[in-house]
Specification:
398 residues, mainly alpha, 2 domains, 13 helices, 0% strand, transmembrane helix, membrane, peptidase activity, RsiW-degrading membrane proteinase PrsW (M82 family), PrsW
């Protein structure tokens, strides 16, 4: 069997060549996180441990919620981790330095103590923080444009950046609450920031995620869309920070705004998923002559439930290797359908499209051979296929 590196093919990189840029980004972001945690621990003392625990507590379910947006074509875990760590490290450390310097040297000297802090919170902080959070999204757009296949990808990466930023920022809020009002104030702050509206930062930055996704998947508006997305993120962030001047009414308005924005993004992702399903049904049948796709496989790829059933079938009959092969086959087939979307819109180089298509077809051939050739699989009916067997097939051109 031909040896293929599934991860390299799915990530669109040369096999055997590590993603140096991503690794450097992870190292730099991790160092920034460690520096921040050290500073917080130094100044927070015993309060730091409590604040850290409360800040981390909502992260696993929130991260799972965000990742669920892109189940049909999951993004590379290493790139998702980079987005989270960038938000938690580089963006927070940079914002801490620039926001502090802005208050000391600009807003407070110009506007006075009270108004200076308000101007910094409503104008300076959104400008600085959303720019720093968005830097990694612009980096992905520039260096890994092919990873962003649609709005769901842009939202996912942006939300993970915002989630990392919010986690580290919440540590400071919780430490301050303990210092100023004890456990009673800490409880109130945790309820507001950790339970009622834990997705504020992810929602703000998702506006830039939409703009970056548009730029990656359309021929027009490639510059305008990210700029508008960044401005929208800054505006929403500024409205959130400035709402405190209106008291309880302001909080109600911004929390309602967050909720409506969340519903809108969910609708966008749902509509895009249906579009992906239609593209699978439209483009993949053309590859039936290669033997890599059958009508039954197309139906399986159109349904998340059928995909899960196929992976369970492969694991039960062929163990973890067969289950991994099935998962890689499903991802490669989905990437192939999305590749046709790029070709249809004319957003990629024709030579790259051919190279990418052949790499995905090669991976589909190898993985399909792997999960169908195990002796224990042959007598086991495929739960998704219905009538009509699907046996091992040769690689493209074979």
């Amino acid at each position: 069997m031909v040896r293929v590196d599934p991860r390299a093919v799915l990530e669109g990189r040369v096999p055997g060549r590590p993603p140096v840029g991503l690794i450097i980004g992870l190292v730099v972001s991790s160092v920034c996180v460690l520096v921040l945690l050290g500073v917080f621990a130094w100044f927070g003392g015993a309060d730091f441990a409590v604040a850290l625990l409360l800040a981390i507590l909502p992260i696993p379910p929130l991260a799972a919620l965000i990742l669920a947006l892109d189940r049909m074509e999951p993004e590379p875990p290493r790139t998702v981790l980079l987005a989270f760590m960038w938000g938690a490290g580089v963006a927070v450390l940079g914002a801490l330095i620039l926001n502090t310097a802005g208050m000391i040297y600009v807003t407070v000297p110009v506007f006075g103590e009270t108004e200076g802090h308000f101007v910094s919170a409503t104008l300076g902080a959104p400008l600085v923080e959303e720019t720093l959070k968005g830097a990694v999204l612009f980096g992905l757009l520039w260096f890994h444009r092919s990873e962003i296949d649609g709005f769901a990808d842009g939202i996912l990466y942006a939300a993970m950046v915002g989630l990392g930023f919010a986690m580290m920022e919440n540590i400071t809020y919780y430490m301050r609450a303990l210092e100023e009002g004890g456990t009673e104030q800490l409880t109130a702050v945790f309820v507001l920031r950790g339970i009622i509206a834990p997705l504020s930062h992810p929602l703000f930055t998702s506006m830039l995620g939409l703009g970056v996704a548009w730029s990656a998947t359309h021929r027009t508006g490639r510059v305008v869309a990210p700029v508008l997305g960044l401005l929208a993120a800054m505006t929403l962030h500024g409205l959130w920070n400035g709402s405190t001047v209106f008291g309880a009414l302001g909080l109600v308005v911004v929390y309602a705004m967050d909720f409506l924005l969340l519903l809108t993004l969910i609708v966008v992702v749902a509509v895009e998923r249906r579009d992906t399903v239609r593209r699978i049904a439209r483009y993949l049948p053309a590859y039936q002559p290669t033997g890599l796709v059958t009508p039954q496989d197309v139906r399986m790829l159109e349904s998340m439930a059928a995909r899960r059933a196929a992976r369970r079938w492969a694991r039960a009959a062929g163990g973890p290797p067969a289950a991994r092969a099935m998962s890689d086959y499903q991802l490669a087939a989905t990437e192939l359908a999305l590749l046709h979307k790029r070709a249809e819109r004319g957003t990629a180089d024709p030579a790259w499209l051919v190279q990418r298509r052949d790499a995905l077809l090669g991976l589909m051939a190898v993985t399909r051979q792997a999960f169908l050739s195990a002796p224990s699989l042959r007598p086991v009916p495929q739960p998704w296929a219905g009538p009509g067997p699907a046996g091992p097939v040769p690689p493209p051109g074979g």
